[in-house]
Amino acid sequence: xxxxxxxxxxxxxxxxxxxxxxxxxxxxxxxxxxxxxxxxxxxxxxxxxxxxxxxxxxxxxxxxxxxxxxxxxxxxxxxxxxxxxxxxxxxxxxxxxxxxxxxxxxxxxxxxxxxxxxxxxxxxxxxxxxxxxxxxxxxxxxxxxxxxxxxxxxxxxxxxxxxxxxxxxxxxxxxxxxxxxxxxxxxxxxxxxxxxxxxxxxxxxxxxxxxxxxxxxxxxxxxxxxxxxxxxxxxxxxxxx
Length: 241
Prior knowledge:
Layout: H1 3-25, H2 41-60, H3 70-83, H4 93-114, H5 123-153, H6 167-207
Helix pairs in contact: 1-2, 1-3, 1-5, 2-5, 3-4, 4-6, 5-6
């Protein structure tokens, strides 16, 4: 197995995600100086949705070609490494199991991210979405870093056969244990994205009139849209629907 080739390809995807994280933390809200500018809530939320849409494109590609994002590239690299035949392939059975698991979780992640759409009229959900995005990027970066090290140092290590006291036994077992925990976190993150996607749908339906009260504004007694004081039930433009 040509370890360096796969490690280098993983590093390329790592750099893309690292740059995305940098773009998020230095998002230019004034469009000039690359710094956070305090603004009104209705100004910030669309910007955050734009950040999500850009990140979504980088992660999973566009709807017409959902296989050209970073996550699919990572899946392809892992699958190719897994398919390298003996004796050049990965001989570490524990590592092979985690690669297979990462591929399955990656496919689920692509699906759930592709179905999560940002609505700037739902500020609380937008905030949760940006939090999940940051969690996702940091988590995937950590996982990529571990796969790079595992591909370099641990593909030839039969964990069950390596003598006690060997350096690479402790190193590889430790990294794989950490990787297992991070893949568990990915599973939890998939559930969180799924829940949030439904919350966005629910919020959007409430705002756009899918109820039995005032269809033009989504009004019902326990929920009043953020309309201007002169709002009347028959005055749709003020309601943003």
